[in-house]
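Hi,

I'm pasting everything inline rather than attaching a file, because the server keeps stripping attachments. The sequence lines come first, and each chain or strand is labelled.
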Amino acid sequence: MTCEQCLDKLTEFLVGDLPPDAEREVRAHVAACPECARALAQVRGLVGVLHGLPEVEPPAELRERLRAIPGAVGEPDHVWWRRWQPIAAGFAAAAAVVLMLSIGFITYQRETGEVPGALMAERGAPADDAVATDGEGAPAEARTPDTEVAAEAPIAETAPNEVAADEAAAAGAQPADSAPTPRGADRRTGTRDVPTASTETVTPERPRPAPPSGRAPAPEEVPAIQPPPPQPRSDHVGRAADADERSGTPTIAPGAAAPAAEAHGVSAYQPAEVLAGPAGASRPAGPAGPAGPAGSRAARGAMVAAMGAAPEPDVMKLAPPAYLDAGEGGSARVGEGTPFTVGVTPPHERVAGTIVAATIRLEAEADVARARLTVAGSEDLELVGLGDDGVLFEGPLAAGQETVLSVRMLAHRPGTQAVTLRIRSTDPVVDTQLDVGMGEFTAPVPPADRPVQFNFVGTPIREAVAEITRQSGMRVIVDPGVGDATVTARADDAIPAAAALRAIAEAAGLQVSQRRGACVVEGAAE
Amino acid sequence: MAANRSEADLIRAARAGDADAFDRLVQAHYSSVYNIAYRMLSTPSAASDATQTTFVRVFEAITSFRGDASFGTWLYRITMNVCLDQLRRRKNQPLSLTDEDEDGELAGERELPDLTDEPSGTAEQRELQELVHEAIGRLSEDFRTVIVLYDIRGLSYQEVAQVLAIPLGTVKSRLNRARLALRDEMEPWVELFDA
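And the predicted assembly:
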């Protein structure tokens, strides 16, 4: 046996997991090889230390953060689906009937040569995807909640595809057989939440807010589609719009919306009318208010130029993205034809690493049969509790009635953060976008920088240090060699905990040093 | 890690949207999750963030948990994925001020025991543990995961294989290499382990 072969078997040897022959070989090699004997002893000692590593007590505030999750995140995924599943099943049945009738109708038309006017109009309007498609071109509503979970599952590169498949499987997106079944594992036959094939083609509605007064949200009223456009719709436009949705960055395709806007009697570029903030009970009218960054304006100018050169009109009113700086609250009027007012109150406490919530108020100036508000974050700003499609609201809006929504977010780093809102509706057809600056997120204050106050009079140094750690959360080692040292010092104004620690150590004739990164109060050096 | 009956009841209730049941699940498991995250990510603040993110993901996906694996396996897998996400994100970020401890600034983020009332022998043991903790943080992600799950959390080979979704033999060989790599990381102090 070589040393390399011996080292390969050390763990199995220590566990007693080797076959007798292999164990004898290792034992014989170790007896004859001082290097491998040493390695065995070191690994054995190391494992002993690993096994003895203490449990670390989680910080008390973590428990509170975790307790807040259900309220902060909202209801779990799929609960809404199960609540609406019976209704969705009804829709499935209705859709099947409609489909059968349509087939029969078309067959009748082919056989008879009669083309009803209504059917001709429909032929010109194949694209109802202003609302009905997601960024992948697939029906957004057809994506099951399980698909969303699977797509969301982050996959470890260290445990590559197996982990991906298995987590997705554990999340319900994979067949049960794809999950590893180790010996002795308890493999129960749980009820799967995956919708049946018949329901996957149905559009399950998300829970909607209470319908506006005087307008019943009759299901058959919702999918109303605008009359056909004067020209056939260009597929490029749909893809450009979808690309916008995915990236949040305007993607200009030939044949985008400016001519369409002109066709509808609006100018090529109408920035959002930003109303005065902060948002609150009243919203004074007028264009005054915070404006977007100059860079954004320049980018939008370039986009307008590109849109102006676009040759083909389109039915969708894809308005240029507007910008609202909601750092201090405010609102903006967006959309053309049927404007929406969007008011945003940013999170009160904006600290990176903490889940916070912003409030969004949506109001349409005219009745909207079906609107969808999606929100997208960024690499640095994760939106919590939203599906991959980012749908925050979907349903009817009554003219002048405000719908208040909450969106939760987690900034992964300090700095200015923004979200992109997109409002789309089918009746009337509107597609508009608003970039909303959420203001500056600050870094969490490390314990060493947290302010502390104290007034120590002849206080034992250990008690004084304990008080500093209690106020700040700092972890400090007090060297046993400090003995019975006491400290008399006071700080009426709050000072950073690290400075306070130095001050009381000096007052006690001690010092604060670093020992492999640890903060240690110990006797002053001679 | 096997789910007992009461835990199964809690999971069923949490799947139905019962926030109180979810909170009891959190209460039962958050310390384990925090400890895994702490050993994976090295700092208390990162461990807290990872714990929070883990339970947010669990909350969002609890209705999809089918029980094919134990809840613990599922939970630890999510925990590991969250930790690995953080490690990758960390690679792309500049050093945080709170991680800085090389230039003489006080590092308030370190989770170190207060040794005030402990005999010096225990203090040395704690220092050794701290050295090991730091060395674990220098291991590759592959090695770190098996060390944390098997040697520190005490999972069996089978459970580690389930959590990481890798074959049993891979767990064994990876664990062996991880221990040797950790020994190499501890090279300056490795004599301390000579029994």
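Residues 79-178+195-200 of chain A form one domain.

If the labels don't parse on your end, tell me and I'll reformat.
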